[in-house]
Amino acid sequence: MSKISGFSKLTKEEKVNWVTDHYLSNYPKAKKVIQQYWNSDEMLQRLHDEFTENTISNYYLPLGIAPNFDIDGELYALPMAIEESSVIAAASKAAKFWQDKGGFKTEVLGTTKVGHVHFDFKGNAEELKHFFTQIKPLFFSSTASITKNMVRRGGGIKDIQLIDKTQELDNYFQLYCTFETKDAMGANFINSCLEQFGQTLEAEALTHQAFKTENTFPEVIMCILSNYVPECLVRAEVSCPISDLGETQEEANRFVKKFSQAIKIAKIEPYRAVTHNKGIMNGVDALVLATGNDFRAVEAGVHAYAAREGSYSSLTHVEAKDGVFKFWIEIPLALGTIGGLTSLHPLVKLSLAMLGNPTAEKLMRITAVAGLAQNFAAVNSLVTTGIQKGHMKMHLMNILNQFEANKGEREEAVEYFKTHTVTHSEVISLLERLRA
Description:
Elements: H1 12-23, H2 30-36, H3 42-49, E1 63-71, E2 74-81, H4 87-99, E3 105-108, E4 113-120, H5 125-142, H6 144-152, E5 156-164, E6 172-180, H7 187-205, H8 209-214, E7 219-225, E8 233-241, H9 249-268, H10 270-290, H11 295-306, E9 316-321, E10 324-332, H12 346-354, H13 360-382, H14 387-402, H15 407-416, H16 424-435
Antiparallel strand pairs: 1-2, 3-8, 4-6, 4-7, 5-6, 8-10, 9-10
Helix pairs in contact: 4-13, 5-7, 9-10, 10-11, 10-13
């Protein structure tokens, strides 16, 4: 192992040489593996290199398509970037299942995003409130140059509130700021506004007589948006007569009973809820990645929302009433269709074009549907055939590729596992028999 100074200033080739010499010396194919993922189009490769720092190669994920999604009366094929083998198959199966039962219905419940100016203040809280009321208009006027274009598009700063958090942390106050960012995810816009709010707060405080007399001034700790967006919320649902869910009424009733109990278990049992919601995020993340949005921010916000009532719980809900089965999700999603990778990455632009170049609100709707479809498919499998049967059949090709199976061996394996359970050891045994 070796230290290095000025690594970021090296050329890409020099970075590759340094990494392979110092950290991959026992991996003779390292340089070849790194370089074989470079794009032959130099301009395209340079674009990818500049997405992040110290790039040495490209990391590929499959971009697949889940067709047949009827969403609010429109038919969609969803682009999904994901490596897990059964996700797109499950989403497609759910889409087809609900296509002749009315499809997916969605509603955007809110688009408000949040940011904070976190600051300390050791003086009189009542005087701070008086000061805040006086200068609140300045927060808006001091950011006019930042908000001008956003306001023109119908967005901007919605409100700014002073919040006293001193009972939870000594001297801690915050400006709780809400924003509408329209088709942009808005992180840079929000953070720029917040930093200006912080500067305005400190500058105006220096001239406030009561603070000068007591020699106590607000001290800004940090200015940053929040990825918890419980007011940027979307709902997606499916519904149908219970009788449509089985060959007979008895079979349909039994399915609904087990399905409903599975959702209720995920509501009260955090161990199950985490895996339950992970399945939802298989669909959400895959679409968020394909459309160039920040899946880490989405994940953080969604899981915080799942725990908002004090215990981690299911994001999906079910009701069987008056002969009707209803299944829905409400999920916070701060997404954008302009800015960032959406205007840079060619496959992101292609994915958005495939979805009809949606607004941010429409992308929220589509993404919520992807999560709901994924969850329906997973729970449906769990309460009927079990999840491993379908998952392991999809995983079969990964195992065969791991052991470099040729075309003939792959065909034999597919045929064999039509009537046998796929396990890692059973695939190895079959290959050993074929190669004997």
